[in-house]
Write a structure and sequence with these properties.
The chain is of the alpha/beta class. The chain has one domain: TIM Barrel, CATH 3.20.20. Helix 6 links the parallel strand 8 and strand 9. The two termini are 30 Å apart. Bound molecules: S-adenosylmethionine, the ligand Nc1nc2[nH]cc(C(=O)O)c2c(=O)[nH]1, iron/sulfur cluster (SF4) and magnesium ion. Pathway: Purine metabolism; 7-cyano-7-deazaguanine biosynthesis. It comes from Aureibaculum marinum. Catalyzes the complex heterocyclic radical-mediated conversion of 6-carboxy-5,6,7,8-tetrahydropterin (CPH4) to 7-carboxy-7-deazaguanine (CDG), a step common to the biosynthetic pathways of all 7-deazapurine-containing compounds.
Length: 209
């Protein structure tokens, strides 16, 4: 990448853009709500079950002017979900201030493993064992969404829940490849531990992006 583009990326004025799409939020608190998704490339957390591994290598995704991303997003929805990849690998201050100036709601999907930048109307924190969230992200999360791949993940989920604020909404979401096996276990767990809710990847049942 040329020096100038790298400088603009460092300032958040350009971002490696993998894809953007208008769809229905499939997961968590806003499930069922229309939103425009901005998927930023680049992630080094390395979840073995990640459903967007194509996002990991930032160099495969074109550095795009943040102003253009915003001008496009505002045509589609009043709610913008920034995801990735891991969006917090980049400085989100410029993007979110521009989105909010346009009157748009800013939501983020994050592992919380990097410094919290940006002004967010909603933070979905999905912690990963390989690279745990930073304290500042636990403290500002509106929802905690723990992916359940095996039985040990219930214990991990409880540890993560002890780190977020009292009003943070707690979700357990089955990992997609074991969804048939883990969903009944999550259903049982939630009935026994009703501070938790179940979150399903409803867009995958609906066959939408
Ligand atoms: C692809 S990640 C991108 C944002 C950020 N890197 C993160 O992990 O939160 C978006 C959401 O999808 C979840 N996810 C990824 N792969 C999944 C899978 N195979 N099954 C269930 N959820 C998955 C993540 O935990 C996260 O909540
Ligand atoms: N419909 C839909 N909802 C989503 N919620 C979080 C997603 C993500 O990949 O971050 C996602 C996604 O990829 N599609
Ligand atoms: S942190 Fe998110 S994008 Fe990165 S590997 Fe894990 S699920 Fe995929
Ligand atoms: Mg997804």
């Amino acid at each position: 990448m040329n020096k100038n583009a790298q400088l603009l990326i460092d300032q958040g004025k350009m971002l490696p853009l993998m894809e953007e799409f208008y769809t229905i939020q499939g997961e968590g608190y806003y499930t069922g709500t229309a939103a425009y998704f901005i998927r930023v490339g680049g992630c080094d957390v390395g979840c073995h079950w990640c459903d967007v591994k194509e996002s990991w290598n930032a160099e495969l995704h074109p550095a795009t002017k943040t102003d253009l991303i915003v001008d496009n997003a505002k045509k589609h929805s009043d709610t913008i979900v920034v995801t990735g990849g891991e969006p917090l690998m980049y400085n989100m201050d410029y993007l979110t201030s521009k989105l909010q100036k346009e009157g748009l709601k800013t939501h983020i999907e994050t592992s919380g493993a990097y410094t919290l930048t940006g002004k967010w109307d909603w933070i979905c924190l999905s912690p990963k064992k390989n690279k745990l969230p930073l304290t500042e992200v636990y403290e500002n999360a509106n929802e905690l969404k723990v992916i359940v791949y095996n039985k040990n993940d219930f214990l991990f989920a409880e540890k993560q829940a002890s780190k977020v604020q009292k009003n943070c909404i707690l979700y357990l979401q089955p990992e997609w490849s074991v969804e048939k096996k883990m969903t009944p276990l999550i259903v049982n767990y939630v009935m026994k531990n009703p501070k938790w809710k179940i979150s399903l990847q409803t867009h995958k049942y609906l066959n939408i992006p």
